[in-house]
């Protein structure tokens, strides 16, 4: 019978056999998958691995800091932290189409990563935290002839361009198994248990144009929502919960004044692999508490709505 401890041993042997004495670089996205892949590969080949964290500035509140302290502090894994938020936000100016956002972010991520790889003298192998659902969702949509629903930027592109071989130790795993492996590798529960976060980050949670100001507003609303979810003890019962900042202004009234601010949508779903999802049925008191806090504490938002759409027909993200 199959356990994560065995999987860990088997994969470590496989990685060593595949890589030999060569160098490997791994791009960290801030998420659980790339972190677990990196820690596993580090255990297999140690100093032959270099991690590059391309920080596009589209992360949740405090997330970049968490990744840096986990790698440098907890594991003592050398990490290059590249803060390139200006580059990303500059390039996203005027871009409103969801796939155009993904393409720009994916391409820019590759450019920055490639430049860093050259800086350190290159490597023969590229490590990625690709999961099984990433592999199938990027290829085709079941029920139709090979239609790409959303291009997941962590799959494809980079290896061909950089002429490198891939190391993808998580390719057969589903999300819950990656978490189990993460725990097996000693990653903190708070990190391993984190909800999935898309590579393009907040850019696809801001329909319309992405600006630094919009990111800042969204980060605050999202942090309040997640804090309330944690306080209510619901975090682990939910697959993914996040706020979306809509490019719509509505009229409100606060104190003696009229407000004309943006709408924030709250999303929370249950799922086992992200391929299908059901909405999380919060009680009304919880939702009104969150709405009140967001409107009172986040300047720029004066209305909060809850998204009641399952997947299918909706997708989990709004873009
Ligand atoms: P959707 O929105 O397609 O999301 O129902 C399914 C899962 O995939 C994540 N997602 C992405 N992850 N790059 C990623 O790395 C992307 O472009 C992307 N789009 C969606 C989403 O957060 C959910 O977990």
UniProtKB/TrEMBL annotation:
Keywords noted in UniProt: ATP-binding, Glutamine amidotransferase, GMP biosynthesis, Ligase, Nucleotide-binding, Purine biosynthesis
Top-level taxon: Bacteria
Keyword Nucleotide-binding listed: yes
GMPS ATP-PPase domain segment(s): 2-194
The keyword Ligase is annotated on this UniProt entry: yes
EC number, UniProt record: 6.3.5.2
Catalysis: reaction(s): XMP + L-glutamine + ATP + H2O = GMP + L-glutamate + AMP + diphosphate + 2 H(+)
Self-association state and partner proteins as the record states: Homodimer.
Function in brief: Catalyzes the synthesis of GMP from XMP.
Full protein name: GMP synthase [glutamine-hydrolyzing]
Species in which this protein is naturally found: Novosphingobium tardum
Lineage of producing organism: Bacteria, Pseudomonadati, Pseudomonadota, Alphaproteobacteria, Sphingomonadales
Positions spanned in the full protein: 201 to 519 of 519
């Amino acid at each position: 019978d199959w356990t994560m401890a065995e999987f860990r041993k088997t994969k470590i042997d496989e990685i060593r056999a595949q890589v030999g004495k060569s160098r490997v670089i791994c791009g960290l996205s801030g998420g659980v998958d790339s972190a677990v892949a990196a820690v596993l590969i580090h255990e297999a080949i140690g100093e032959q691995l270099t991690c590059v964290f391309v920080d596009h500035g589209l992360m949740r509140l405090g997330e970049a800091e968490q990744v840096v302290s986990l790698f440098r502090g907890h594991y003592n894994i050398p990490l290059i932290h590249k803060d390139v938020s200006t580059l990303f936000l500059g390039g996203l100016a005027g871009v409103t189409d969801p796939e155009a956002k993904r393409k720009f972010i994916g391409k820019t991520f590759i450019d920055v990563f490639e430049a860093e790889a050259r800086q350190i003298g290159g490597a023969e192998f590229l490590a990625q935290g690709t999961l099984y659902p990433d592999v199938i969702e990027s290829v085709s949509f079941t029920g139709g002839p090979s239609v790409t629903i959303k291009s997941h930027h962590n799959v494809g592109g980079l290896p061909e361009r950089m002429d490198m071989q891939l190391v993808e130790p998580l390719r057969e795993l589903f999300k819950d198994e990656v978490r189990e492996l993460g725990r097996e590798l000693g990653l903190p529960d708070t990190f391993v248990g984190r909800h999935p976060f898309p590579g393009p980050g907040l850019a696809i949670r801001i329909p319309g144009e992405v600006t630094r100001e919009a990111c800042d507003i969204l980060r605050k609303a999202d942090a309040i929502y997640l804090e309330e979810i944690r306080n209510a003890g619901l975090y682990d019962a939910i697959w993914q919960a996040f706020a979306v900042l809509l490019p719509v202004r509505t009229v409100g009234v606060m104190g003696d004044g009229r407000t004309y601010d943006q709408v924030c949508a709250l999303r929370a779903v249950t799922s086992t692999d992200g391929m299908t999802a059901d909405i999380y049925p919060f009680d009304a008191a919880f939702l009104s508490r969150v709405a009140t806090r967001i409107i009172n504490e986040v300047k720029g938002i004066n209305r909060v709505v809850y998204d009641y759409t399952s997947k299918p027909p909706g997708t989990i993200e709004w873009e």
